TrEMBL record:
Similarity-based family: Belongs to the Fanconi anemia protein FANCD2 family.
Organism listed in the record: Esox lucius
Region annotation Disordered: where it falls in the sequence: 1-31, 821-874, 1360-1386
Annotated Gene Ontology cellular component terms: condensed chromosome; nucleus
Superkingdom as given in the UniProt entry: Eukaryota
Pfam family, one: FancD2
Biased composition (Basic and acidic residues): 861-872
Cross-referenced InterPro entries: FANCD2
Gene behind the chain: FANCD2
CDD domains listed in its UniProt record: FANCD2
Protein's cellular compartments: Nucleus
Protein known as: FA complementation group D2
One BP term from GO: mitotic intra-S DNA damage checkpoint signaling
UniProt GO MF annotations: DNA polymerase binding
Length: 1393
């Protein structure tokens, strides 16, 4: 150990003086030549000189190093003996020191004494390297103090000299002499002198002394010197680094370390940036497991990395200076800080957990800063799995809560991009994870991570980002594909030159188009064409590949691939035909480009002529291009030049006195809205075209193209005439060549082909009217508005005809061309139509493969039991085929502003023959609201992302069918439009409320009063429910949680609040929520059905949830839900509401009540203790008097709801340590066990299979919760509350015995649905027995426990004889005085307990 210490000291000296080392080595290697040159210093004849020579050291003159002839240990021993044997001892010591002082007055000699001696042994053997003369003297205990004093007196002479010509720094060498001494005689005095020297020395020497303190002082002085350094640290921030370096090496007690760390933390905000890494490292390395969270929280609060970032201008200048090698960057210091954190979290689990907890505890967006994100990236990059998972979880929670937002991510990337580059793999992995989440907030944040990574990092990272996004696109998961394509399109817009480099990666997606939806294919080709044909940075190397793919797809005979070719070609036209320089008025498109564009359009048109479905898709895609893209005027003119003439030639005819031809039905002009005589003017030639199309397959003009062609015509007119539709306004009111609708009443006598023809005719007529409404809904002229409303009435009437007769089932059962032609050419679903067309007629259910891709027939507001009785529904509802109708544009919803009048008022106005005052009727209102609700459900409601199974081809997303136009609208735009419609929606809601209020007042509250207009009642009920559903969907939009949409939320709530309170001063969000809640609560008195009641309750919950004080509205919500549950609901026919839909609604409403009530256990006991006994005592078909919705048909709904909420409630019973809290918890568990006992014993009366299944399932869950949460409470409460615990266990034992009997009953019945629950339940029952025994043993009452055999019995209490001797099935349970099995009469007694 001694040799090791000396060697380290020498090493330190060698580091400080390379020149002297080389001299020493040279003298060793040259041997005698060095001796010949050097002259011995013989002038010193003092005691010092004599003793030194006699001990074996030869003092040299000049710059030659002193020589030593013996080993340094021998030298020290000889010198010590000479001093002790001297007759003048101890006075000789002072003489010796005086001689030393006189010797080192000469700087050269002093220098020699500080440098190592050169060994020169007599036998020629060269020993190991020797110490300096002064250091050897310091090793002699009797001289040590005197030599130290001499050195300290000598040091000030060289204090301001700095390094000499040979690079030797005398003060530094003097300090080095004191390091690693074998023993320090007076460590305390030495420490004092060192600190005195620190107080007067220059900064450089101060740093040398401070950093050397741990190597100079003994452990006994560490605490004292640490306190002095702590004081010095607060006085002089220049010495932060050496002081912390010294403190890190000192052996300190935990108390002192905490004190020092607190002082260091206090100076953190004032420390220099370049010193910050050392400070952070010291703080993190001084943490113990007990105070880790507290220290990390404080460090996180004071670590302001945002302040370390220079403004962009200074950053640029700094980077220029750095390139010249003059200075470093602030980013280097930040990187070192993060490295300190990384090393701490990697090797100390407590610190990583503390960081996660500290970030998790920050509960506001303002409380988060760049260091949070950086630390999360660090934790994710470490190899420890818990850190990786923990960082991912915390980030997801914070992003979902809106506490870590895109603005913080942007600041972090902008200020610390150089640092974050090192954590790019973690950033990429987190972005991939977030993009796969179902939550839109997390998906958006993952997208921002991708975007900023591409923008801020180098080309390697950009390539990885593009590759990862392409992987998302090829994943086949709908939401993931959409977001990835959106991000790639955004990157092409922001960074076209950079993205052009990676076009070949994106091109690879063309091989995976089979699993993409039409909208995704549209986005993909838009992305590729934007890169390939961009004017300034084209990725021209993929142009040929795109042309090859498009031509190959267009030439395919399979409609699916032809569809891809059409979409791709039209998207390429949009990019190639864009105005040069972005000037829409330009018209200066190069001739070659113009020729290529027109040639491509001609190619698409010729390839789609052979198929009416392909032609319809071509028109739809082209109209979409005209609507969404800015085209060069030359291209625009080429598209629009022949549209009007072709449309007139193909579809429009003059109405003459008679129409000649052979048709299945008599021909006449129908639905003329113009005032002229119906025998003159124009008409849509629909019936003859349909007849011709069926007779001649592949006819040039197909009725399937009517609506798409008209849409293209209308949009071209809008573009060319700046929104004026005067040239085509005659098409709004012109008639159609159809047949008399009286033939519908004779449908039973028609042949199958005739009925299919009639069905197709109705479909095409409806789609024509829908497209006409799309075109003219925005016109301001009153006459045009009247015609639009009339067309809506035509649509609802024709749809009712289809819905009320068997046309739909007949038409879609058959796989003929006619049945498929009835399907509107929905944009993006031409494949569906095409596949149906090719289905062989023998396959009567051929459409099932396509119907699987469609939304299931929803039980919407049209499905009323009363309506079912009045009209016979077809086997296939029209709801199933709704996606095949033409999509209504969002602008059509503006027709809602026409108002709502009840039928009686409308009739009275019509009697006055004021035709111009056609108003929106209930049927049209329901039609528009249904369409609006479906749009909102599709766009604003998030469905969980589902990953397709491996090697399974994923069909197109069925949910998106029928919303191809809406898919091109962002959720924000849709929400903004809906907020503008809110005043109109509120007006309709109030009209519905007033109608039912008037109805109730006129009929004295009787719903099924005689003379009631049932159809009107049904329509207005549907409108009422739809209005509530629309409002609920709007306010449920997750985007309102994001800060950037907070203003839109306040605007929406302001509309509701303004209906109740006149607008005054600007209200806060909480005030708006309160007024909106009060406004909606006013509608509770007029809800006509339980479904509408549920809709109102859900809307109120959603509105209340938009604020920060949800608890404020819980009581009102619970009171409302209870009032609805305690209300009797009857239909217009006087019957009680019933059926699966009613039961589902009732269960949801019951859950709302039990979730929002203050005391769930009391509410369950109230229903089970009052409502169910009333039901048992009532007649068979009667209901409970207190709870009218509780009857024998709905008992299962109530039973399942109560058991489920009871089990949830006991899981939420909070733990408590105080005696009062434990006592309160014991009372809570007593009530819960009593409720459970009541519910379990009900199976004796209601013993049907479903009730038993619920009891087994939730009985096991309750028992497991009791074992986990209740039994530990009983362990500690038994002594103080012995009677309460005993009563609780006895009550619970009754329940467990009944569950045991239920297990036996399930085995007898051999019902697998029931027996699946038995093994786990019996295991929990056995655990309960032994857990009670453990509790009694813990409380020294084991004598109160005894075991006995419990016989297997069925629900009636009869012993199961077949299992009497099977000991393996016997269950042991706690023995106590148990009553005999209860009869049904005794069940009532228990319930009334």
């Amino acid at each position: 150990m001694m040799r090791k210490k000396r060697r380290s000291s020498v090493d330190i000296s060698k580091d400080a003086m390379p020149t002297e080392m080389s001299m020493s080595k040279k003298s060793r290697t040259t041997g005698r030549q060095a001796k010949a040159v050097a002259k011995e210093d013989t002038s010193n004849d003092s005691v010092f000189g004599q003793f030194i020579r006699q001990s074996g050291v030869i003092l040299k003159q000049g710059s030659t190093a002193n020589e030593i002839a013996v080993d340094q240990v021998v030298f020290q021993k000889r010198l010590q003996q000479q001093l002790k044997k001297s007759p003048r001892y101890p006075g000789v010591l002072q003489e010796f020191i005086t001689g030393l002082e006189s010797h080192i007055e000469d700087p050269e000699r002093f220098r020699n004494c500080l440098l190592p001696c050169v060994p020169c042994l007599a036998d020629g053997d060269s020993s190991s390297f020797q110490e300096s003369l002064l250091r050897m003297l310091l090793g002699i205990e009797m001289l040590q103090t005197l030599v130290i004093n001499t050195l300290f007196e000598k040091l000030p002479e060289f204090m301001f000299d700095g390094a000499g010509e040979d690079g030797l720094n005398i003060p530094h060498v003097i300090v080095n002499q004191l390091k690693w001494l074998d023993r320090v005689k007076d460590s305390k005095e030495l420490a004092g002198k060192l600190m005195q020297l620190v107080s007067v020395a220059p900064v450089e020497i101060q740093r040398d002394i401070i950093t050397s303190l741990p190597e100079i002082l003994e452990d006994s002085q560490h605490s004292d010197i640490a306190r002095e350094l702590n004081v010095l640290l607060q006085e002089n921030t220049q010495l932060t680094v050496p002081i912390l370096d010294a403190l890190s090496s000192l052996n300190l007690s935990s108390t002192l370390l905490t004190e020092v760390r607190a002082s260091v933390m206090a100076t953190l905000s004032a420390v220099q940036l370049e010193d910050l890494p050392v400070v952070v490292k010291f703080i993190l390395h001084s943490i113990s497991s007990s105070d880790a969270l507290e220290v990390v929280c404080e460090l996180r609060g004071k670590l302001e990395l945002e302040l370390c970032v220079l403004p962009p201008v200074l950053q640029a200048s700094q980077s220029r200076v750095k390139n010249k090698g003059l200075t470093g960057s602030s980013q280097d210091s930040v990187a070192l800080v993060l490295d300190s954190i990384k090393s701490a979290v990697r090797f100390q689990k407590t610190i990583s957990e503390a960081w996660l907890k500290a970030i998790e505890n920050a509960d506001a967006a303002e409380g988060h800063k760049a260091v949070d994100l950086l630390v999360l990236f660090i934790l994710h990059s470490t190899n420890a799995n818990h850190s990786r998972r923990g960082a991912e979880k915390v980030l997801k929670v914070k992003v979902r809560a809106g506490q870590i937002q895109e603005a913080l991510l942007q600041r972090t990337f902008r200020g610390h991009s150089q640092v974050m580059r090192g954590y790019f793999p973690s950033i990429l992995a987190l972005a991939q994870t977030l993009l796969r989440c179902p939550d839109p907030c997390m998906v958006a944040f993952g997208g921002h991570m991708y975007r900023h990574s591409f923008t801020a990092f180098d080309s390697y990272c950009q390539q990885e980002v593009v590759g990862s996004l392409v992987t998302h696109v090829c994943s086949g998961v709908g939401g993931e594909v959409d977001v990835a394509l959106e991000l790639l399109c955004g990157l092409v817009t922001e960074k076209p030159a950079e993205m052009a480099l990676y076009a070949v990666f994106v091109k690879g997606v063309l091989d995976y188009m089979d699993n993409l939806t039409p909208q995704q294919i549209r986005r993909l080709f838009h992305l590729l064409s934007s890169m390939a044909f961009r004017q300034h940075h084209p990725a021209s190397h993929i142009q040929d590949d795109m042309h090859i793919v498009i031509r190959k797809q267009l030439s395919s005979t399979v409609l699916k691939y032809k569809r891809i070719g059409i979409i791709g070609a039209v998207r390429v036209v949009g990019s190639m035909g864009a105005p040069v320089g972005g000037d829409p008025q330009g018209g200066n498109l190069p001739k070659e480009t113009y020729r290529q564009v027109t040639a491509l359009l001609e190619l698409v048109r010729s390839c789609s002529d052979s198929s009416s479905e392909a032609a319809a898709l071509y028109y739809d895609e082209l109209s979409n291009l005209v609507l969404t893209c800015t085209l060069d005027p030359l291209v625009q003119a080429w598209i629009g030049k022949s549209v009007l003439e072709d449309f007139q030639e193909d579809f429009v005819v003059d109405v003459g006195p008679e129409i000649t031809g052979s048709f299945p039905f008599p021909v006449c002009a129908m639905y003329n809205l113009d005032e002229e005589d119906s025998q003159v003017g124009i008409a849509i030639n629909l019936l003859p075209l349909l007849s011709d199309d069926l007779e001649h397959k592949g006819a040039r003009v197909s009725p399937l193209c009517l609506a798409p062609f008209f849409r293209l015509l209308r949009l071209c007119e809008v573009q060319q005439r700046h929104g004026d539709l005067e040239e085509i306004d005659a098409l709004l009111g012109c008639p159609l060549i159809l047949t008399d609708m009286d033939v519908v009443n004779k449908s039973e006598s028609l042949s199958r082909p005739e009925r299919e023809f009639l069905c197709g005719l109705l479909f095409y007529t409806i789609n024509w009217f829908r497209e006409v409404v799309n075109a003219f809904c925005g016109q301001k002229d009153p006459e045009m508005k009247m015609k639009v409303v009339t067309r809506l009435q035509n649509i609802t009437y024709l749809q009712s005809i289809l819905d009320c007769h068997c046309f739909v089932s007949l038409a879609f059962e058959n796989g003929t061309a006619l049945s498929t032609s009835t399907v509107a050419p929905k944009k993006g679903k031409k494949e569906s139509a095409g596949k149906k067309k090719k289905t062989p007629p023998k396959n009567s259910s051929a459409d099932s493969s396509q119907l699987e891709e469609l939304p299931e027939a929803e039980d919407t507001q049209q499905d009323h039991p009363e309506k079912d009785k009045e009209t016979s529904k077809p086997a296939v509802s029209l709801v199933s085929y709704r996606p095949f109708f033409r999509e209504l544009d969002m602008e059509v919803l503006g027709v809602l502003q026409c108002g709502l009048l009840s039928r009686s008022v409308l009739d009275s106005e019509l009697h006055s023959k004021v035709r111009e005052e056609v108003q929106l009727g209930p049927a049209e209102l329901v039609f528009l609201l249904e369409d609006m609700w479906r749009k909102l459900e599709f766009k604003l409601t998030v469905s969980p992302a589902k990953r397709a199974p491996f090697l399974k081809v994923k069909r197109a997303d069925a949910r998106s069918v029928g919303f191809s136009h809406l898919q091109q609208t962002s959720p924000v735009d849709l929400a903004s439009r809906c907020v503008l419609l809110l005043p109109t929606l509120c007006t309709h809601l109030e009209n519905c409320h007033n109608h039912f209020q008037t109805l109730l007042s006129e009929n004295q509250g009787v719903v099924d009063a005689p003379g009631l207009d049932v159809k009107e009642h049904q329509l207005l009920s549907s409108a009422y429910q739809l209005l509530l559903q629309v409002l609920h969907t709007i306010f449920s939009w997750s985007g309102f949680s994001q800060p950037e949409h907070r203003g839109l939320l306040k605007k929406a709530l302001g509309v509701l609040a303004g209906r109740l309170k006149e607008e005054g001063a600007e209200l806060t969000l909480e005030q708006l929520i309160r007024h909106s809640f009060e406004y909606l609560l006013n509608f509770r008195s007029t809800v006509p059905s339980l479904g509408i009641a549920l809709g109102l309750s859900q809307l109120l919950i959603t509105v209340a949830g938009r604020g920060g004080h949800h608890a404020t509205y819980r009581e009102q919500t619970a009171t409302l839900a209870r009032a609805f549950l305690c209300q009797e609901w009857v239909t217009t026919s006087g019957d009680r509401e019933k059926g699966p839909k009613h039961n589902e609604t009732l269960q949801t409403l019951l859950s709302i009540y039990l979730e929002h009530t203050d005391d769930v256990l009391k509410a369950v006991e109230e229903i089970a203790g009052e409502g169910i006994p009333e039901l048992l005592n009532a007649a068979k078909d009667a209901s409970s008097r207190t709870w009218p919705t509780l009857n024998r048909l709905t008992f299962l709904v109530f039973y399942k709801g109560m058991m489920g909420e009871l089990e949830k409630a006991v899981r939420k019973i909070p733990p408590g340590e105080q005696v009062e809290v434990k006592s309160e918890k014991l009372l809570t568990w007593n009530m819960a066990v009593r409720d459970f006992h009541i519910l379990v014993n009900l199976v004796k009366v209601f013993d049907n299979r479903s009730v038993l299944n619920v009891c087994l399932k939730y009985g096991r869950l309750f028992l497991e919760s009791f074992l986990k949460l209740g039994m530990p409470l009983l362990d500690f409460s038994f002594k103080k509350h012995k009677e309460d615990v005993q009563s609780l266990l006895k009550t619970f034992q009754l329940s467990t015995r009944q569950l045991h009997h239920l297990c036996g009953h399930s085995k007898i019945r051999q019902d697998t649905t029931l027996t699946n629950h038995v093994p786990a339940l019996k295991k929990s029952l056995e655990q309960f027995v032994y857990r009670v025994k453990a509790m009694l043993t813990l409380n020294h009452c084991q004598e109160a426990f005894w075991l006995g055999n419990l016989k297997n019995r069925d629900l009636k209490g009869q012993e199961i004889l077949s299992q009497q001797s099977q000991g393996s099935d016997d269950e042991e349970e706690e023995g106590s005085l148990m009553p005999d099995e209860h009869s049904e009469d005794e069940v009532l007694a228990i319930i009334n307990f």
